[in-house]
Amino acid sequence: MLADAPDLDVLIIPLGGGGLMAGNAVAAKAIKPGIELIGVEAKLYPSFFNAVRAQDEPIGGPTLAEGIAVKTVGQLALPVISSLVSDIVLVGEDLIERAVNAYASLQHSLAEGAGATGLAAMLKEPERYAGRKVGLVLTGGNIDTRLLAAIMVRELERDDRIVAFRLTTSDRPGLLGRIASLLGEEGANILEVSHGRLFLDVPAKGVTLDVTVETRGPAHSRTIEDALAKNGFAPRRILPRGLAEPAR
Predict the structure, then answer these.
(1) CA angle, corner 246, sides to 245 and 248, nearest 5?
(2) Which strands, in side-by-side order, build the sheet including 10-14?
(3) Which H or E run includes 135?
(4) Where are the alpha helices (DSSP H) in the chain?
(5) Residues 132 and 204 sit within 8 Å (Cβ to Cβ)
(6) pLDDT averaged over 10-residue windows placed end to end, the chain, 248 residues
(7) What's the CA gap between 130 and 79, in Å, rounded?
(8) Would you say 119 and 142 are in contact if contact means Cβ atoms under 8 Å apart?
């Protein structure tokens, strides 16, 4: 990397047992003593973070970064990392997902969770790296395709490009067609529709419809929600944590 880009200011490298980081640290500092080295761990497995900083953060849990999910540090790597690595950054699962998605959608590169943690560190603190030339080590692409697909859909939901509404109205012929026409006029692509007639908080002659649509982003989603409200459908956003408050 330094042969191809000798003006790199920073190298960000995933930390598991520490062998990869230690080896790269020794080589990079020999070639360019002033380069900054940053290690990255999954927040659920802060083994080196604890060892280097004398902390006692809890370790364990399901993580997307399985390749660096280690509970004990490499004893040979520890003194090298302690002396040469300037910082150890912890990244949460949401940032790891964002990084995997960014590699796939922007760089057309497959990255497993552990491999994407370097980019996750940059997403966590973009201001830290502004104006600097950063090298990332993508350590693996062994990600299950179904998991990758789920991550990419979840990212679309985070970006408000896939949104779900619960609509409550009177049950009458042509209702679904009217809703579909309205959504079409607003430029929303319908992905899924589910009827509900048995909810006790809905009148006997009423119906709820859960509609999932594809949008162009947050502003477009708000426009669609406003249009549904103006047409009497009382939309409520369905969020991962449950129903949002009714639109005002």
Answers:
(1) 115
(2) 87-91, 36-42, 10-14, 134-136
(3) strand 134-136
(4) 19-31, 47-53, 77-84, 93-106, 117-124, 145-158, 175-185, 218-230
(5) no
(6) 96 96 97 97 97 94 95 94 97 96 93 96 97 95 91 89 89 86 94 69 66 94 94 86 53
(7) 30
(8) no
Identify the residue whose tokens are 């796939």. Answer: 104
pLDDT, tens digit (0-9, with 9 covering 90-100), for 88-147: 999 999 999 999 999 999 999 999 999 999 999 999 999 999 999 999 999 988 999 899
Helix 218-230 / helix 175-185 crossing angle, nearest 10 deg: 140
**Residue 159, both tokens:** 């970006």
Q: Map residue 204 onto helix, strand or coil.
A: coil
The answer to whether 67 and 14 are in contact (CB under 8 A) is yes
194-204 pLDDT per residue, tens = 876 545 444 44
